[in-house]
Amino acid sequence: MIKSFEVASGESLPRVGRPQGPPLHPLIHAAIIMDGSGRWAEKRGLRRSAGHRAGVDAVCRSVQAAPGLGIGTLTLHAFSADNWQRPSFEVGELMSIFAEFLRGSVAEWVDAGIRTSVMGRRDRIGPALVADIEAAEAATREGTRLHFRLAIDYSGREAIVRAARTLPAGEEATPLEFGRLLGADGRHTEPVPELDLLIRTGGEKRLSDFLLWELAYAELIFTDRMWPDFDEADLEAALDEFRHRERRFGAVPAPAVLVAGGVQ
């Protein structure tokens, strides 16, 4: 099992809007910045698109493994708002890969009880891909085993601004309500569980404008593993690291109580 994950978070702090006590959502909400696919391909003398296509296999492995590892919500960063700066042919290939992935996965997701939703803007992607997104969301909306969220043309900063603009003039929102507006993303009104864990592959150590509000109290794990090589063992190792961290949410741990026979 891979154990080369690096701790990147400091002392855990309280989640905004969450009362003290047992977590409201016992299942984990994990997010992954899927980095390294292009570099993976270049090291092998392949076109970058070959790495992106190999990355789809890693997505499938993670989605299939997530429920059995205790993940209830899985959010993957597929294409950021800044990725439009890449060469147009690479962007076009990525959009084709997204469409093929969605169309080819819907039946499996329905059978597996996986609900799918896509975050991000839809006014800058082609109408055919928008139709594929809407079809996948409609077909899988009854899934309860896993909520699989895919971020396409997504920016954390833009999401915060968009949520702020939805507030009625002069009305203040609590952090909890504002978080709900962010999760709604203009389309989905049900609340999304607080983010527990962010994993970034590919060796880079930055957030890249991903889930900036939601990451406030999440644990961060970085790995050098390139995304196409990321497998169930890597995901399990990250979750094992996460579960062994002490998350106090700003509170002081309860002092040990001396009782007959030892410490309780």
The arrangement of helices and strands along the chain is EEHHEHEHEHHEEHEE
What is the CA-CA span between the terminal residues?
33 Å
Q: List segments where confidence is low: pLDDT < 50 over at least 5 consecutive residues.
A: 1-25
Instruction: State the name of the first-level CATH class.
Output: Alpha Beta
- The number of distinct β-strands equals 9
Q: Beta-strand level of the residues, as a percent range? A: 15-25%
Write the layout of secondary structure elements.
Elements: E1 6-7, E2 28-33, H1 37-43, H2 48-65, E3 71-80, H3 88-112, E4 114-119, H4 127-140, E5 146-154, H5 156-165, H6 175-184, E6 197-200, E7 219-222, H7 232-243, E8 258-259, E9 262-263
Parallel strand pairs: 2-3, 2-6, 3-5, 4-5, 6-7
Antiparallel strand pairs: 1-7, 8-9
Helix pairs in contact: 1-2, 2-3, 3-4
Question: Can you offer a commentary on this structure?
Answer:
This protein is of the alpha/beta class and 264 residues long. It has a single domain (6-15, 23-263), classed as Undecaprenyl pyrophosphate synthetase (3-Layer(aba) Sandwich), CATH 3.40.1180. Helix content is 36%, strand content 17%. It contains 7 helices and 9 strands; from the N terminus they run E-E-H-H-E-H-E-H-E-H-H-E-E-H-E-E. It has helices at 37-43, 48-65, 88-112, 127-140, 156-165, 175-184, 232-243, and strands spanning 6-7, 28-33, 71-80, 114-119, 146-154, 197-200, 219-222, 258-259, 262-263. A 7-stranded mixed β-sheet has the order 1-7-6-2-3-5-4, sandwiched between helices. Strand 4, helix 4 (127-140) and strand 5 form a beta-alpha-beta unit. Helix 2 runs parallel beside helix 3 (88-112) and helix 3 (88-112) packs parallel to helix 4. The longest helix has 25 residues, at 88-112. The chain is globular and about 55 Å long. The two termini are 33 Å apart. The model is unreliable at 1-25 (pLDDT under 50).
